[in-house]
Design a protein that fits this description.
It is a single chain. Strand 13 and strand 14 (about 370) form a beta hairpin. By secondary structure, the protein is of the alpha+beta class. Helix content is about 35%, strand content about 20%. The protein has ten helices and 14 strands. It has helices at about 5-25, 35-40, 70-75, 95-105, 125-135, 145-150, 155-180, 185-200, 260-280, 285-300; strands at about 30, 55, 60-65, 80-85, 110-115, 140, 210, 230-240, 245-255, 310-315, 325, 340-350, 355-365, 370. The strands form two sheets. Strands 7, 8, 9, 10, 11, 12, 13 and 14 form an eight-stranded antiparallel β-sheet that branches. It folds into two domains: about 5-150, Creatine Amidinohydrolase, Chain A, domain 1, CATH 3.40.350.10; about 150-370, Creatinase/methionine aminopeptidase superfamily (Creatine Amidinohydrolase, Alpha-Beta Complex), CATH 3.90.230.10. The longest helix has 24 residues, at about 155-180.
C-alpha cells in the first residue's frame, strides 16, 4: 500500500467526517465523489466514471463497492480493507448490490447521506440508486459534507499545494522561453506539460487552455492549434498538479508587440486582482471578493468584458475539472477561513476589438490575510 498522507492525517479526516455525520444525524454516508474517496482514504483511480460507492458508517466502518479493475487499485493506494466487487454483465445493477451491503450492515430504515453531486453518479445511476434504496432507507442530499471539510487544508496538504505552485511557475518559464512569432501552440503545450512531469507532477484534472489570435478570447480548451503570427496574443490557463493538488495560473502574453489597449487591460487586471487580494482574508465572505472585482472592472469601463465569477477553490480534484467548491460569485455566503486555497482569475474578453487580457494566481488564506502561491510577478511580459 502506498498512500500520500500519514495515518494520523487520515485518522483526523475520518474523525471530522464522523463528527459532522453525528451532528447531521446520519447513520452512514454514501460517497460517490472521487475527491471524497481520495481525501478520506487515499484511493486514487479513474474508476469513478462507473458506478462506485464508498460507505462510511457511523461507527467508522469503510466499505468500497467497485469493479474488478479497481480491486488492486484500492489495495495499492488506499487504507480501505473491505472491498466488494460488482460484476460487469448485461443488465447489471450495482445499486442492488449496494443495498445488499447496507442490509448486511443492518441499516434498514436508517438515515443515509448521499453525495448526489458526483460525476460517477449519472442520471441513470441516480435513478437506479433511488429505485433500490428509497423504500428501505431515508436518503438525504449531503453532497457538500466532505467538500466543506476539504476546504480548509491541513499542513500536509499545504505542502502539496506549494509544490504544485512551484510546478506552475516552471510551466510559465517554459512558455516564456519559446513563445515568439512562428511558434506553434502545440510546442508550447508540450513544453509546459513536460516540465511538470519532469518535476514529479501529475496530469491535471482538465486540459490546459491555450489560444491565440481569435481563440485568445476563449475560456475553454478547444482543439485548434495555431502558429503564432508576427503580431498576436497568446492566452494560457494551466495548473501545476502534485498528488492531485492544483495551483492555477492565467496569463495573456502579447506576441511581437502589445496593443495599447492590451496594456490598459493588463493594468485593469492588476488593479482588480490587488483589490481581490485585499478582500481575501478571514471573516470576509467569498461573495465579497467577487464584488470588489466587479466594482473595479465596471468603474474602468470593462463591465461587458468581465465574467460573472472571478475564481474558485482549489485542492485535490479529479477529471473533468480542477474547479472546486465554492466559486467566487456575488452573494456567495461562505466565510473565508485560514487554510482555504483559491484561484483568483481576472478575465477580460473584448469581442469588439478582438482583444483578450487575463491574469490569475492561486492564494492561501492565512490568519492575517493571504499568501500568493508561486514566485512569478504579475508584470505584462511581451514575447
Amino acid at each position: 500500500m502506498s498512500t500520500h498522507f500519514t495515518k494520523n492525517e487520515f485518522d483526523n479526516r475520518k474523525k471530522k467526517v464522523l463528527e459532522k455525520m453525528d451532528r447531521d444525524s446520519l447513520d452512514a454516508l454514501l460517497m460517490f465523489r472521487q475527491e471524497s474517496m481520495y481525501w478520506l482514504t487515499g484511493y486514487d483511480t479513474l474508476g469513478f466514471v462507473y458506478f462506485q460507492c464508498l460507505i462510511l458508517t457511523a461507527n467508522g466502518d469503510l466499505i468500497l463497492l467497485t469493479r474488478a479493475p479497481d480491486l488492486r487499485q484500492a489495495q495499492n493506494t488506499s487504507i480501505i480493507k473491505d472491498i466488494r466487487i460488482w460484476v460487469d454483465k448485461n443488465e447489471a445493477n450495482p445499486a442492488e448490490e449496494l443495498k445488499n451491503i447496507l442490509d448486511e450492515l443492518n441499516l434498514g430504515n436508517k438515515t443515509l447521506g448521499v453525495e448526489y453531486e458526483a460525476y460517477g453518479l449519472t442520471g441513470r445511476n441516480s435513478i437506479k440508486l433511488h429505485d433500490s434504496l428509497n423504500r428501505s432507507y431515508k436518503l438525504k442530499d449531503k453532497s457538500e459534507l466532505i467538500s466543506y471539510l476539504r476546504l480548509i487544508k491541513s499542513e500536509e496538504e499545504i505542502v502539496y499545494v506549494k509544490k504544485a505552485a512551484e510546478l506552475a511557475d516552471r510551466a510559465l518559464e517554459a512558455v516564456w522561453k519559446i513563445a515568439k512569432p512562428g511558434q506553434s501552440e502545440s510546442k508550447i503545450l508540450a513544453d509546459m506539460q513536460s516540465v511538470i512531469f519532469e518535476g514529479g507532477g501529475d496530469y491535471p484534472a482538465n486540459e490546459f487552455i491555450i489560444g491565440s489570435g481569435h481563440n485568445a478570447l476563449l475560456c475553454r480548451y478547444q482543439s485548434e492549434k495555431r502558429i503564432l503570427d508576427d503580431i498576436d496574443q497568446l492566452t494560457i490557463e494551466w495548473a501545476g498538479t502534485y498528488k492531485h493538488y492544483h495551483s492555477g495560473m492565467f496569463r495573456t502574453i502579447p506576441i511581437g508587440k502589445a496593443n495599447p489597449k492590451h496594456i490598459k487591460m493588463h493594468e485593469a487586471c492588476v488593479e482588480a486582482l490587488s483589490a481581490c487580494e485585499n478582500k481575501l482574508k478571514p471573516g470576509n465572505k467569498v461573495g465579497d471578493v467577487f464584488d470588489i472585482h466587479a466594482e473595479v472592472f465596471d468603474r474602468l469601463g470593462y463591465k461587458k468584458c468581465r465574467m460573472n465569477a472571478c475564481g474558485y477553490s482549489l485542492g485535490t480534484t479529479f477529471a473533468p475539472t480542477w474547479m472546486d467548491w465554492p466559486m467566487l460569485y456575488t452573494g456567495n455566503p461562505v466565510v473565508l477561513e485560514p487554510g482555504m486555497v483559491f484561484f483568483m482569475h481576472m478575465i477580460l474578453m473584448d469581442s469588439e476589438n478582438k482583444l483578450s487580457m487575463n491574469l490569475g494566481k492561486t492564494y492561501l488564506v492565512t490568519n492575517s490575510g493571504n499568501q500568493r502561491m508561486g514566485k512569478k510577478k504579475l508584470d505584462l511580459v511581451i514575447k
